[in-house]
Design brief:
By secondary structure, the protein is an alpha+beta fold. It has a three-stranded antiparallel β-sheet. A hairpin with a 4-residue loop joins strand 2 and strand 3. 41% of the residues lie in helices and 13% in strands. It is globular, with a radius of gyration of 17 Å.
């Protein structure tokens, strides 16, 4: 999803000239973003290990899902089995750079629970009560997690 407009908040809100946020508007959403990470603010991604794993999940969504599956509101629905399958594929592809907590000690179920919890807390997804489907919200398309090129190359050479 391409960003249609980006505004700095001082232009939008002259009574708040010192806010660091920018307003980004796309077809299906609007969100405030920070161009730089600020230590005093809680932000996603943070430095927790689950954030790296969650960013890789966001990348898998963009790589794997067909855009025809997106509804008019920019949402995608997955069954629990589809969600867990994507977590499993993500683990195979990206785990070499994860913390030992997620690379070695965590079960697939724990990874799925942790990723779901974090993305739910940040409103990137939700679970529909009536159907049990996991709804991926439009904001998920705005972020991805990739390893630096030199790290990815060293991993390929080791394989």
């Amino acid at each position: 999803m391409d960003i249609l407009l980006t505004y700095s908040c001082p232009r939008l809100c002259p009574h708040l000239p010192h806010t660091p946020y920018e307003l980004q508007i796309t077809k299906n959403m609007a969100m405030l973003t920070l161009p730089e990470q600020k230590q005093q603010l809680e932000s996603f991604p943070d430095r927790k290990a689950v954030s790296s794993v969650s960013l890789h999940f966001l990348t898998m969504i963009q790589e794997k899902l067909d855009h025809r599956e997106v509804d008019p509101f920019g949402e995608i629905r997955l069954t629990q089995a589809q969600f867990e399958q994507m977590i499993q594929e993500m683990r195979k592809k990206y785990q070499h750079g994860w913390s030992s907590e997620y690379r070695e000690k965590s079960t697939l179920q724990k990874i799925a629970e942790d990723v779901f919890r974090q993305l739910d807390e940040w409103s990137f997804l939700k679970k529909e009560e009536q159907t049990g489907l996991i709804v991926l919200r439009p904001a998920m398309s705005q972020m991805i997690g990739q390893y630096p090129a030199d790290f990815a190359k060293s991993v390929e050479e080791e394989s």
